[in-house]
Each structure stands twice: as C-alpha cells, then as structure tokens.
Amino acid sequence: MTDQLTVSVLGTGIMGAAMARNIARAGHTVRVWNRTVAKAEPLAADGAQVCGSPAEAVRDADVILTMLYDGPAALAVLREAAPALRPGTVWMQSTTAGIEATGDLAAFAREHGLVFYDAPVLGTRQPAEAGRLTVLAAGPAEGRERVEPVFDAVGARTVWTGEDGAAAGATRLKLVANSWVLAATAAAGEVLALAKALDVDPDAFFDLIADGPLDMGYLRAKAALVLEDKLSPASFAVETAAKDARLIVEAGRHGGVRLDVAAASAERMERAAAQGHAGEDMAAAYFASFDEDGERDG
Fold it and tell me: In CATH terms, is domain 172-289 a member of 1.10.1040.10?
C-alpha cells in the first residue's frame, strides 16, 4: 500500500464537495461524480478528476465515499457503478441513510465484496470546508489503515462505534445527535417567531439568558442567520433537515418510542420548504410559524 490513495467521491453537494477538496489537499488522487455535473465541475480547479458516470469514478479506486441525499439514492448510484466495482475496495458510506437503508447498503457491499464502513459525519458547511468534521464510524478493524487517511483528511476526530457496519451503530449515533440539532433549531425559530408576535426585542431575550444555563452558542448562531438574513448559502438545508427528521421519527418507531418533537420538526421543515425555503439554511424553519405571505398565523 502506498501513502497516496485513489478516492472516488460520489455526491458533491455542500458536504461532498468540501470533503473532496480536503481529500485532494491531503495529497490523494480524487475522482468526483455528481448527477448535476455543474456541482462537480468546480472541483477540477482543486485537482479532482470530474467523471461522467459513477462507474468511471469508482474504477480502480481504493476508497469510495458516498455523500448523497439518502439511502435509496446511495444504493441507486452504487448499482450504476456496479460493473466497475472491484472486490476489496473500501466503501466509506457517509450519507445519512437511516437504520434500515444502512442495512440495505451493507448487504449490497457484501454482494460485491466491498469493505463497508458506516461513516456518517457530524458537522455542517464550515467545519466541512475546514476539514474539521467528526466522523462517526463502524466497520472492520482489518482494512482501517486504508480508510483512516480519508477520515483524517475530512475530519478532526473519528469516533468508532463498533466493527459491524451493517449494524448501523454509527448511523444510530448520528440520528441521536441530529435529533438534538433539529430540536434546537426548531426551538430557536419558535423563540424568534413568538418574540415577533409579542413585540419583544429578541435582544431582550438574549440579554435575559446571557451567561446562564439557558444560554447556548448554537441558539445564538441560528437566530443570527434569521435576524441578519444570512440563510444562504445553507450550512444544512431545510429540505435535507426535513429528510433527516423523518429518519429520526422512523428510527424511534423502530425502537418503540414516540418522538413528538422530531415529528413536529419534520413538519416545520416541510412547511418551510413548501414556502420556498427548501435550499436555505434549516434556520429558515422560522418561517413555518407564519402563513405563506409572511404574516402571523391566526
């Protein structure tokens, strides 16, 4: 094995593009593919080879990294790539896919002799661009020496959850973390909406909780995006947050628990998306508190 790997990145949206750049900067050969080619083409300036098909991208790769919309999308793309897959290739599956879909992806990997790592990441646009994501990983100890250089290129920390990627241990931890992120985001939007409805200056609220146990940097950061109209470009888009919220609800149902806050967060995200905020930062769920004309409901 050489120090330089050939890494195929399938999916070059907000996260995938940033990860591809950092892998290239770490000295690895990077091939990229995206169904919307225009999203992949800028990566050529960073030294990546832009490929016309998933099969072209994965041919002779040491590591395949998938960062696509959801589990079915990742499976569909790997099926397109199947003719060029080489047994023994490492698959770093970073799409937030949900528990059931991760099992389907692991089964596909077994059928094609791929070494499967369930490896979602925690973080948004800024840490992705800085190579400071947290990688949550599950997969066999044998073979980690091939995937860990990629983890190191995209992340500041790797949290191993086990050796069986099919058990979706990393995905389970990611869903738990995202449930908190989505709940906090929804709460931030409702605080601002209620303040507007009651003619309360948001700064009065922030001054009230300053430096106490109720204060929270994340709350202030998401509120600032709304108050300063900085919802684009998104760190984590409304439409993707809605998808993840539904995965969280499904995971809870699978485990026998009812997650009312996650379900409500999904509905808020979907309502904001329908109002035209799908591609904005998930803080734009704030607008779900108002009717389509931006006026207060009721």
Answer: yes
Please provide the CATH number assigned to the domain covering 6-167.
3.40.50.720
**R_g of the chain, CA atoms, integer Å:** 20
What does the pLDDT look like over 198-210, one tens digit per residue? 999 999 999 999 9
Residue 123 near residue 137, CB atoms below 8 Å: no
Mean pLDDT score across all residues of the chain = 96
CA angle 24, 44, 56 (to 5 degrees): 85
The single residue listed with the structure tokens 């979706």 is 168
Domain ranges across the chain: 6-167, 172-289
Q: Can you give the three-state secondary structure of 163-180, one letter per residue?
A: CCHHHCHHHHHHHHHHHH
Q: What is the average per-residue pLDDT within 240-255? A: 97
Pairing between β-strand 63-66 and β-strand 49-50 as defined by DSSP bridges? unpaired
Residue 75 pLDDT class (50, 70, 90 cuts): very high
* Strand locations in the chain (E): 6-10, 29-33, 49-50, 63-66, 90-93, 115-118, 121-122, 133-138, 155-162
Are 90 and 117 contacting, i.e. CB atoms less than 8 angstroms apart?
yes
Task: State pTM to two decimals.
Answer: 0.93
